Amino acid sequence: MVNDEDLDPTINAWTLVGLGSFLVGCVVAGLVIGGLVDNLADSSPVGILIGLSIGVVVAVVGSCVRIATYLRR
Question: Does the predicted TM-score (pTM) go above 0.90?
Answer without folding.
Answer: no
